[in-house]
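Support case: user asked for a sample of complex input and structure output to validate their parser. Sending the pair below.
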Amino acid sequence: MAPTPNGKVAAVKKKINLWAWFWILLGALYFLVPLYGTFDFSLREKRGVLSLLAYQNVLADPRFRDSFTYSALMALATIVVGLLLIVPTAYWVHLRLPQVRPLIEFITLMPFVVPAIVLVFGLIRIYSGPPLALTNSDPLTNFLLMCGYVILSMPYTYRSVDTGLRAIDVRTLTEAAQSLGAGWFTILFRIIFPNIRAALLSGAFLTFAIVIGEFTLASLLGRPAFGPYLVYMGNNRAYEPAALAIISLALTWAAIGLIQLLSHGRPGQEQVGGVH
Amino acid sequence: MAQATQNQIRANSSQRSLVIRNLVAWAGVVPFLVFVILFLFWPASSLITGSFQNQSGAFTLQNIIDLFTPSIMNAYMLSIQISIVTAIGGGIFGFMLAYAVIQGGLPRWVRTALTTFSGVASNFAGVPLAFAFIATLGHTGFLTALFADKLGIDIYNLGFNLYNFWGLALTYMYFQFPLMVLIMAPALDGLREEWREASENLGASSYQYWRYVALPILWPSLLGSTILLFGNAFGAYATAYALTRTLNVVTVLIGDQISGNVLFNPNLGYALAFGMIVIMAVSIGLYTWLQRRTARWLQ
């Protein structure tokens, strides 16, 4: 007896399913083996037994605390300045200058065209001599580094803010606020910011994930950030780098997890790459 | 006559107020434009102009010509090779994963898990990623030791080396294929079940479905994503720097030039960066163009 069409479809479905599981298994191995391997390696500082010694050493290292604090503060400054720069701009473009949107989108794509290593090269060329010699003093170099980070995180921040603004009715909210006598400051900080909270937080967490372990800018501008500290440890220790990799992974995981929690699967929140 | 003049004046003043309103509207984006000019466009364009100047500032094409010396060409070739290998490898693997999870009839949670993993892995890069691979596949790494202890195989004797081209490619793949998963997912979501059913009802084989239906729809986005992956690997610096000091990809060469002027000619260094900007601009431009073509199918 010939197989019924339904039976044939079911058989095809089943074959596809098996293939699907095969690729997922392979993908899971690629994801998880290095993570497990790193975790296992990080526990082997004491010969013959598993221990958390590498983690204890890292956490007790004052340079770890200093560099981590430095990068966390840098991330915070980048988030604040980035949002203050991008939210009003994106809001204004939505409200008054929709014809400029392609230009702004083009500009926010530019950090992909100018990779971090090229960007820092240019920043050093411009700002290490007169008339704007920023790299001669530490506070000004910190400022320069932060501006570089605002540029690096701009594509992601802009995309989240833009998605957030598309989801609300910018014009009606603005007109309602204006007819109640609100000024621009009130509109931005008491109407727009709270209404796109989730998008702002997504952008903020991603910026944090990018800045906290960033190496290229910090190292070539000679700042004591977490990224250069990681490389220093990699050159001088065997097991501590693995522990640091696990700590960095946990931070990345927390940031991305929070973003996905906030966006719960809404489209347009997927991010295109970080800084490698 | 008086009426006409008055109209003229009214028209002029309304035109003027329109201009003023436009200027006010543009003023709103000035802080942003000033910032990107100061910290992105001016620095980047200074590298471009610098690559067409000699050390005393006069115009020259010598730096561009000097890019074609063997040591610099080797760096570009290495960067291009590693980017092509990891873009195609990561592209195929990422596509298979995305296809499996979206069209393969797997439970919903598998997709959620894959998306989360991909979000983390595409951002887990740079120095910590290099450390993870050293801890796993370095000379004393977890897998190296596992193979040696359990199977008596020394993978380094078999020709594997984490610190050469293929080791670096393997490491880059860790952030490449998750990125492919993330950018292919929307395109695969747009591939409707009805199209497959319709082609099956019309007697099409699986090959015919792919050749005449699925691939023509997917190719702009497949090609675009692969090009984006190329650019993603091409611009990578921290991973390569932390993993190996012997593979001179372009980014590592630029880093050495910034910290020590290893080329003994700053302007040649600018030309090196200029070459990178050109390659990145071409790949991002192609990606954006192909992405627009795909967008039509995703309505």
